[in-house]
Amino acid sequence: MSESHLHLHFLSLLLLCYVSPSSFSSLNIDYSSYVACRPYQTQVLTEFMNEFDSSHCNLSDPYNRVWCDNSTGAVTMLRLRACLSGNLKPNSSLFRLHHLRYLDLYQNNFISATLPSEFDNLNRLEVLYLSNNSFVGQVPSSFNNLSLLSYLDLSQNDLTGSFPLLRNLSKLSFLDLNNNHFSGTLNPNITSLFELYNLRYLDLSYNNFSSSLPSEFGNLNKLEILALQSSDFFGEVPPTISNLTSLTELYLDDNQLTGSFPLVQNLTMLSVIEIADNHFSGTIPSSLLTMPSLLVLKLRGNNLTGSIKFPNSSTPSRLEYLYLGKNPFEGKIIEPISKLINLKLLDLSLLNTSYPIDLNLFSSLESLLHLDLSGNSISPASLDSKSDIPINLEILWLQGCGIKEFPNILKILEKLEYIDISGNIIKGKVPEWLWKLPRLNTVFLTNNSFNGLEGPVDVLVNSSVKNLLLGQNHFEGTIPLLPLSINVFSASGNRFTGSIPLSICNYRSLTQLKIGYNNLTGTIPQCLSNFTFVNLRKNNLEGSIPDAFHISSSLKTLDVGHNLLTGKLPRSLQNCSSQEFLVVDHNRIKDKFPFWLKSLSNLEVLILSSNKLYGSISLPGQGPLGFPELRIFEISDNKFTGSLPPRYFENWKASSLMMNEDGGLYMVYTKATSGRLSYFNIEAIDLKYKGLSMEQGRVLTSYATIDLSGNRIEGQIPESIGLLKALIALNLSNNAFTGHIPLSLSNLGKLESLDLSSNQLSGTIPNGIGSLSFLEYINVSHNQLKGEIPQGTQITGQPKSSFEGNAGLCGLPLQETCFGTIAPPTQQPKEEEEGEEEEVLNWKSVAIGYGTGVLLGLAIAHLIATYKPEWLVKIIGPNKRRSL
Ligand SMILES: *[C@@H]1O[C@H](CO)[C@@H](O)[C@H](O)[C@H]1NC(C)=O
Ligand SMILES: *[C@@H]1O[C@H](CO)[C@@H](O)[C@H](O)[C@H]1NC(C)=O
Ligand SMILES: *[C@@H]1O[C@H](CO)[C@@H](O)[C@H](O)[C@H]1NC(C)=O
Ligand SMILES: *[C@@H]1O[C@H](CO)[C@@H](O)[C@H](O)[C@H]1NC(C)=O
Ligand SMILES: *[C@@H]1O[C@H](CO)[C@@H](O)[C@H](O)[C@H]1NC(C)=O
Ligand SMILES: *[C@@H]1O[C@H](CO)[C@@H](O)[C@H](O)[C@H]1NC(C)=O
Ligand SMILES: *[C@@H]1O[C@H](CO)[C@@H](O)[C@H](O)[C@H]1NC(C)=O
Ligand SMILES: *[C@@H]1O[C@H](CO)[C@@H](O)[C@H](O)[C@H]1NC(C)=O
Ligand SMILES: *[C@@H]1O[C@H](CO)[C@@H](O)[C@H](O)[C@H]1NC(C)=O
Ligand SMILES: *[C@@H]1O[C@H](CO)[C@@H](O)[C@H](O)[C@H]1NC(C)=O
Q1: How far is the CA of 281 from the centre of ligand 8 (A)?
Q2: Domain closes at, from 425, 443, 461
Q3: Which EC class is this protein assigned (predicted)?
Q4: Are 586 and 580 in contact (CB under 8 A)?
Q5: Is the same domain home to 266 and 318?
Q6: CATH number for 304
Q7: pTM here?
Q8: Gap between the Cα atoms of 264 and 261, Å rounded
């Protein structure tokens, strides 16, 4: 049983305990037949429902129910899930249902409502379930009056403030605050948490508590489940945790916890211990592996060292899921593992072993289904088919193990579903027998030196493989005939030649076709329009882009850049309402700017550079360009003309993106794939901006770039450019821009690369640009600028050439000093310009959205829980170098 199952099991037990059906009479009927409900109660309930759009509430389905006490006729239990839409107001009739003991309003659409303090009118409540409702603000102190409450779930909202006041809730046994924005210290002198002695379930995960773990956690000794992951906890785990003798599940992952292994060895009920991605150091206590109930032990990504000595115990360990990866064990840990004979999952990746691992060591692990040895060196002999390894393996990761020969050991793994041998140095042909493994579903051969497939041309056709990833190898010849059930075919970065076979149009389940960076010729088949992810970049394809995108298209990504394509942009792209990436750069497309793409409300990336596009990029009389989600806009080296209206950059996504300083999204992402890159759904883009440090895996979801260079755009640079706070690169060079450099550029606090060279800009360089602290590269050469170059470390470190060819710039890094020259001192802008700047700064930017992050977090939590590949999580990945 996986931990997520355990979790659910516990939940249902709790519900059974607290919502004992015998104390409520149940009516699953429509309004008119509430026999046990008094008319007045029914009326109040009707009023409540009428405050909302409740047309989706079906009181006959098992989720939505009203129960009335059969002696008093009062509504005592109300469950309305995912069907109300509107505002929950303080004067809502809900708060007149005083007899409610059970209230479940899970996942309704209460638009940005705060939690009304009137909830305390419902002071008979025992169960209150308000999860996933977008409630904002603080939990009102009146919640403290719900003194009969035993079950409180406020999870999946946007609640803020410190730990809520719940002091009088002495009966509380279940408290779930996960996925909110609660913050601050859990100071035992102030917070009421440590007085909730009856808590059996406590979930504070995915919040922003920035706190140590007070020793008072030891007071909560009825706790069975304690979940504190991803909430910024730091410091050591207090020894008093050993007091929590009822604990069955402990989750501390992804915090900043330090010190030695938490004192949990005596907690004999524990079945799950997850402390991954912290800074725990020292050795693993030897008694841990023989804890009587322990099934899941997740220690990945810490600083644990040393070896485990197994106590001489007659009872074998029950451990089923063991994650030890990314710890500096140096291999000492491996031998004792052969005694953990109930293991189903074993993660030993990235152990920094000093000697090659011998797969025969795992021969005793007969239940093992999932083995991860990525990033270790493996004894070549033990990869031979004569080795003794668990034959029930379903998932095997051997990524980056320095393997030279195809691992023949796979031949005996009849149950293998998923194999990853990417990032090795295997040469030659992929053996024919691989495709005969009866359950094979996903094959990663990426990043090796394979040059072909052994066997006849149709060797793949009858294979069960659905996801085939061959990218970054030396495959030659024409694209092979694919398995009939293929879903993902990714073969970018090879030496495939010939045309794209029309046979790909026959695969009904093919959704991802990634064959960029090959040497394919011919035209693009029409059926391309039926796929979701298409990458044909850097081939020699000719003809035009098929104009067959139909209204039900699921296209998300289309990258046909760097080919020989001609004709116009297909107008049927307007039908692709899911599209996020449209990349057609470096072709010969002759067309006007595609204003008509505005209907693609999800478009985030539009790259049209280096084509033969022409005409104005703004429509007469129009203000903002108006692509609501656009973040990456590159149209350089075309023949665009015209000028940009002042409000051109208003309402762009780049003004409201939530920037994550530490690349938080990326961290979550690497954890989801256990620190490895998954090649699924990674959209890579070549971003070429001088000075831009594209460190590996920088996530494209969190920043924005604009490149209009090499056109004939004239007029002023719109002040509204200063609204795009997430901009990291701006290139307007080689145009005909006139006027001053906008003062608002100083607002672009994330800017790393700025190129305004070769225009006709006049005036001075705004002083604020000198204080842009991330600016790595600036070029204003070949304009008509005057005055002093703003001084600041980012600027004086630039080469002289960045300022050359102007009318009269002085100061570092140029040799001309401003003192004693005829150049005027830095001019303060004229009055009206100041006014303009203020106006720009006051333009409202859209509220920051946390939503995506939370959802991603959830999806990933699920992923971690099951440790099964899950391709639905959309990740926009690293740059081109990485994808090659
Ligand atoms: C309401 O739910 C019941 C039970 O699930 C179902 O039979 C019925 O069709 C639903 N009614 C509507 C209008 O959806
Ligand atoms: C109320 O329901 C309970 C349980 O179903 C039953 O024992 C009791 O007799 C009922 N009371 C009335 C007044 O109907
Ligand atoms: C609740 O208050 C709002 C104003 O905030 C008012 O418009 C509405 O009529 C009131 N509803 C009831 C049921 O009193
Ligand atoms: C929360 O609600 C949204 C819809 O509003 C839904 O898509 C999502 O799956 C829900 N999340 C959870 C964890 O229930
Ligand atoms: C709590 O109060 C005690 C006594 O007043 C004090 O010694 C202690 O430092 C306080 N703890 C915190 C975390 O503020
Ligand atoms: C441990 O639990 C006991 C009750 O079992 C309680 O009396 C004691 O205060 C707790 N100790 C600590 C250090 O929390
Ligand atoms: C665990 O229990 C043993 C024996 O009861 C005791 O000696 C030891 O101190 C306990 N360890 C912890 C960390 O509480
Ligand atoms: C890891 O632990 C060792 C001691 O075991 C310590 O010297 C080292 O600084 C730790 N490294 C990190 C990154 O915490
Ligand atoms: C691509 O194919 C053409 C002939 O079709 C050949 O001239 C060229 O060298 C090939 N390029 C590469 C990179 O293999
Ligand atoms: C797209 O798929 C549908 C059925 O799934 C098929 O009828 C249609 O011909 C396909 N379009 C192209 C251009 O292949």
Answers
A1: 6
A2: 425
A3: transferase
A4: no
A5: no
A6: 3.80.10.10
A7: 0.79
A8: 8
pLDDT digits (tens, 9 = 90+) for 831-858: 333 333 333 222 222 222 222 222 222 2
Q: In this predicted structure, which of 24-38, 586-600, 781-795 has the lowest mean pLDDT?
A: 24-38
Pocket test for ligand 10, best of 527, 531, 534, 572 (most atoms within 8 A of CB): 527
Whether residues 310 and 380 fall in one domain: yes
pLDDT per residue over 37-52, tens digit each? 788 888 898 899 999 9
- pLDDT given for residue 856 in this prediction: 26
Atom of ligand 5 nearest to the CA of 187: 13
Token reading at 43: 């009326």
Closest approach atom of ligand 6 to CA 240: 13
Do 110 and 237 share a domain, yes or no?
A: no
Output the CA angle 840-842-844, nearest 5 degrees.
105
Is the CB–ligand 6 distance for residue 64 below 6 Å?
no
Domains held by the chain: number: 4
What's the 188 CA to ligand 8 centre distance in angstroms? 30
User: Is residue 503 lining ligand 10, measured as CB closer than 6 Å?
Assistant: no
Q: What whole-number distance in Å separates Cα of residue 88 and Cα of residue 92?
A: 7
Helix (H, G, I), strand (E, B) or coil at 226: strand
pLDDT of residue 685: 60
- 98 alpha carbon – ligand 2 mean position (Å): 21
Distance between Cα 73 and ligand 2 center (Å): 12
Provide the 8-state DSSP code for 542: B
Which secondary structure element, helix H or strand E, spans residue 152, and what is its range?
strand 151-153
Which atom of ligand 6 is the closest one to the Cα of 219?
A: 14
Q: Judge whether 737 and 713 are in contact, CB under 8 Å.
A: yes
Q: Are residues 707 and 779 in the same domain?
A: yes
Q: Check whether residue 263 and residue 298 sit in a common domain.
A: no
- Domain span at residue 289 reads 283-425
439-475, pLDDT tens digit by residue?
999 999 999 999 999 999 999 999 999 999 999 999 9
Distance, CA 279 to ligand 5 centroid (Å)? 27
